[in-house]
Give the backbone structure.
Amino acid sequence: MRALELVNVEKQFKKKRHESVKALNSVSLAVERGEVVGILGPNGSGKSTLVRVNSTLVIPDAGEVRVFGIDAVRNPRAAQRQMNRVSVEASFFKKLSALENLLYGAKLYGVTTGEALPRIREIFEQIGFDLKRAGEPMEHLSRGMQQKIALARALLTSPMLMLLDEPTTGLDPRSKKDVQALIKTIRTEHDASVLLCTHDMDEAEELCDRIGIMVNGNIIALDKPRRLKERYQQNGHLPSLEEVFMAATGASLEEMEASEADKAELAGVS
């Protein structure tokens, strides 16, 4: 049984002047048990919508979403118990401490304080979080530390499926490495399956068994990193992942993100 399976999933959102944009265009995707699948794409490609649909935060207009065989559209609560989500902007009760946020998150999943406390101490050691700072309000912690706490919160409930939406974006190099190491730990020590959406080529290549390229709501390529490179090699030259992206889409990731920013600016002017 697959950890996650999407079949012909579609989602569109209404914009101004009765216009609509298709965020997901007949997307089919599978994540096997214990597998890490990465989705590369620029901002606005549909990655975040993909994560929100999988996590049941957004209902698809069409298609099927299954989490360990559970129909996530018809039985969202049952599906939610099998997974956890970490986004680029992790949500917390900012006035509460890291410890209070973790204990609250544990209770939502039916984990008692007595069960959670020793597990929290263990996780804090894993992520290099100073126990002396556990009582500080979240708003006093750096973004890097907040992301670590977000992953710790997810890890605390021992999810079978992790949905990670740009978990290291905006972090300093040290914090990024720490978070990536924690993702590896979650996979190897907890036998978790992972869907990682990112625009970091190096991160995708280091962490993922298979990598997909997403543009305008479509997954246009999905394979093991080596096979993706072999597919686009020329004259015996094995391209980098950046070169694969350019060959598949006709533009670099930076160019596509700049184009999306220009479109947004023009829309704001009009």
